Amino acid sequence: MSSSAGSMVDVSQGVLADADSVNHNKRLYRKETLLREVQRFHLEEILPGKAFGELTHPCYTSKAFRTIITSTASHQVMAVWWRDNQLHGLVRTTCTSSRLI
């Protein structure tokens, strides 16, 4: 990922996911599935400004998995786009204690 320097909030862009290939967690996400889910994510989370994330992902069975906890958010996804089978994104860090590692 590349990053802008010298600002209170850093903005970076880079690859968020690779479609149709096994990732570091040994999972394979088909492009047709990612296309559908990224479109939904864009409409429901990115456009309304709710696409926050954490450095450590909560377990999907946790109540926190689908809940935005701003005190633990480390970044916000601002935009996404496709280049072939790679999903790229523009992400900015948030001003919370969680971004300080």
From TrEMBL:
Cross-referenced InterPro entries: Peptidase_U9_T4_prohead
Pfam families: Peptidase_S77
Annotated protein name in UniProt: Cyclic nucleotide-binding domain-containing protein
